[in-house]
User: What shape does this take?
Amino acid sequence: MDPKTLLLSALVLITIGYHAFWFTSVRRRQGLLGPATPTPVGTAIGFIANFFDTLGIGSYATSTAMLKLWKIVPDEKIPGTLNVGYVLPTVVQTLIYVTIVEVEFTTLAAIITAAVVGAYLGAGVVARLPRRGIQLGMGTALIAAATLMTLSYLGIGPAPGVALGVSGLKLGIAIGCSMVFGALMMLGIGFYAPCLIMISLLGMNPTAAFPIMMGACSFLMPTGSIQFVRENKYDLRTAVSFMVGGPGAVLIAAFIVKSLPLDTVRLLVVFVVLYTAYSLLRSASVERRAAAAGTQG
Assistant: This one.
């Protein structure tokens, strides 16, 4: 059996184990978590976000914007909801792209492992952060994401390379960066934009970024999500809606649409992300002033 097949087999087993853990936890805590039936709005968000995610835009920033705009999930539960609910759609992406896109296996495995370690450490912190800490962290992270999206839209950065893998110092840099990206993903900033920039800076073929970033996410998300589930730091109905709405969108985008003229969509997403970042930071500021006034009173 070749290494990629072993990797994907392990991913399938991890995914089954993660969902078994999640569903068992839900049954035990049903009274605390509320109903588990998906909602039409949540399912639609999951479909839209994963459609564009499969085409390389990312799902976290767009999902956060919609969740915040329509006040579907409390701010402090957004990171956990995204990570818990998007495991299955991301695994479907990985099974497709790792199979059809060529990438050097050592680079793929090293980046995935580093991202998982970063996610595990990051989730332990984020799952215990207070509401205002998450608002500040997500607001700052979204500004960083919007900056990376803008650079990509403007074509600023190195010319695309042709390498399908890296070694030596470049591999070390990729491992270190991936640990950071994995940790930040637990705050709700997507892995795709920073990973794509990193791949380009290292002189790799941008196409190779798809199996790398999707593979990293599909392994790190179950690892980090377990901690959100344990801490009940997510919205159950929305997470289930994401799980239901996402896989179909992935299949449509990967096999039917395949590509779109996405520059206009990317620019729109940048503006939406910036507005969402402003909204989160403003909420944190308002709540800090209210808490200060209450203390003084």
Observations:
- The radius of gyration is 18 Å.
- The chain has a mean pLDDT of 86.
- The CA atoms of residues 182 and 241 lie 24 Å apart.
- Residues 3-30+37-282 form one domain.
